[in-house]
Amino acid sequence: MSASPPSSSPHQSLSNFRLGSSGATYLLLIIFVLGATLSLVLFYLTQQAVDGVLVNELGQPVLQDISNAQRNIDNDKHLLGSLTGFLSFKDTASQDEIKQFLDTANLNGSSIEQVYRADVKGRSIVMQDQVLDRSTLSSHTFTPEYLAGLDEAFRDNDVGHNAGVVLFYNRDQAWFITVNPIRSSDKKEHILMGFSPLNAVFRDVIGRFRSGDLIQLSIYQKNGNKMHTVLALDRPVTFWNRWLPAPPMSHQIRFTGGVLVINFVTTLHEPALWIATLPYVSVGIGFFLTMVLLVLIRSWHRHSYEATKTASHLRRSNQEINRKFMDESRMARALRKSEQRYRAIFDNTGIGICQISDSFEWLNANRTLATMLGYENPRDLLAAQPDFHGHLFTNPAEREDWINRLKTDTCRDYEAEFFTQNGGVMFVCISGRAVVDEEDKKRHYECTMYDITERRRAELGLLQAKEQADFANRSKSEFLANMSHELRTPLNAIIGFAEIIKDQLFGPVGQTQYVEYAKDIYDSGGLLLSLINDILDMSKIEAGKRELAEIDLDMAKLVRSVGVLVDSRAKLGKVRMHWEVPKDLPHLRGEERALKQILTNLLTNAIKFTPEGGTVTIGAALDQSGNMRISVTDTGIGIAAEDIAVALAPFGQIESALSRKHQGTGLGLPLTKALVELHGGVLDLQSKLGEGTTVTLIFPADRVIQLSTMAGIS
């Protein structure tokens, strides 16, 4: 029975429905974005309009007061100009006559409180006498100390010989100083200086701040690129003024000494407070209308979705019956193809696969495994049953071990030696696991095998090569040890004879140059002897012939004795030595010569690679495990992390400016490490380039001899 394929109309309708749902979602998103954008634009435009209204309504009175301050400065210049003309004809007038003149000339609308006469001598201003005192509070004497810096302010603004206005401030208050040159009866040039307090000039603006009309008021003097705060007033703001602030406003006043910038923020009161809320009301209305439109569109789409869903449900029911029939047919074909693919993979995979029963009879095997064991096909392998008849494992004990592992748990990567069908031998790696049924009962075992014969042959070759390398290394060490002994005898004679000539033990040498040559021979021979000794010690250790002459050593005394040996070298290099070795440090069982050689090498290296003014610290203590730790820390050039392995290798040297200055053999650290390990210890080297190095020697606790134990033995 064959079923006709279903018509395409239900499936097409369902696709149209999904497309409509997605389109409605996009439509809602677009409407929301447009509504939000229009609301924000409306908020911005309303905010701009509201700021313009608030600036016009609230800022005009303050700007008028600032204009009054400008007018006060102009009145100050007019008053001082008139007073200059009056005093030019009558410079001996009293203050009463000057006040009478000002009353007659109607010049009392100025902010000037005090007028002084002064001389301009070179680049300095010298106060002479007071001309007028109109202070309403208390008189102020402008002493030279009070006016410190006035000369510089006059020079910066070219005021003194010329008329002008300068803003002068000190720690007390700020003054506008109006200046006019005056020629007196003695034919000398003087200047009149009128002092106007900043508070008097800006009394109207400051009065508005004190009355609460302003939240902030600040006055800055701007002269070129320089800004200086002259006045800064601020008051706590109310809740509404914090969240609905008035727009900041600014105005400038120009005078000879630069520009005054006045910034202020007004206080919002009704009805201005309600005007400030209009931008937020507008954006709220915009978002509200957008959400209403979204709800309406969403409701319409939901009703459309329910109707479409009901119609499509009937179509899908009919379609589902046909689909199930088609799916069952496709599943049957897929199972057949899957079984064929599995069999092809099973037979042609590069790894041998087999199934073994609980009695260890082979049930199934692939072609790869049959070929690996020398059989033409899997049928021949299963017919022969080599493992069941004991003809597979070359070692029966290995077979028993493998079976026991497979029975108890999954066996992975078990290596064994097999016989092949033609009598050859091969190495295989076996992995296996038990297969259980639905009731957790064991059905059979599945195993995989692959040939590792070539790998085992390579391992044997590497092992033989290693043995040959070890033999060559031992031969080299023995050769170096023998050669070092042969070289030391003539070298000692060279050093001895060079020392006799150098010290002129048998009388003076005719030429001093010979003495210098003898000293060079002596130093070079000593360096070569040290190198040969290091090579000899290293060779003995590598050859396993170095034995320790162990005794109980007082480590505190031994460390300090080594310090005495290197102290002169530290002083010569201007390096400070710092000791952190307690006097009650326990004794250590070891060889005295080896331990002195270890500490001498470490301290010499630390001093050698520490610049002048640096510090070398040696410390010793027991850790929590009872191990003795001896550390040598320097503030020298340090070693990069990637170079530490090089420094610990024989003849390894690290290139640097300071290392080239002090030549060495590269055996100091490797020999020290070998001697420490000969004592069963560990050498730990921690270093950072440019910061210094710390070398820690860790000797095991079984070599530490406590003082109480020694007392009991004695």
Descriptive report:
The protein has 714 residues and is α+β, with helices and mostly antiparallel strands. It folds into 4 domains: 17-296, no CATH class; 349-451, Beta-Lactamase (2-Layer Sandwich); 473-539; 550-713, Heat Shock Protein 90 (2-Layer Sandwich). 51% of the residues lie in helices and 23% in strands. It has 19 helices and 22 strands. It has a 5-stranded antiparallel sheet with strand order 2-1-5-4-3. A 5-stranded antiparallel sheet has the order 11-10-14-13-12, with helices on both faces. α15 (592-608) runs antiparallel to α18. The longest helix has 81 residues, at 9-89. The protein is flat and about 145 Å long. The model is unreliable at 1-19, 657-663 and 710-714 (pLDDT under 50).
Helix/strand-derived category reads: alpha+beta
| Total helical segments | 19
Average predicted local confidence, pLDDT: 78
Question: Quaternary state, please?
Answer: single chain
Contiguous runs where pLDDT drops below 50 for at least 5 residues: 1-19, 657-663, 710-714
Estimate the helix proportion, in percent.
Answer: 40-55%
Beta-sheet strand percentage?
A: 15-25%
Question: C-alpha Rg, in Å?
Answer: 52 Å
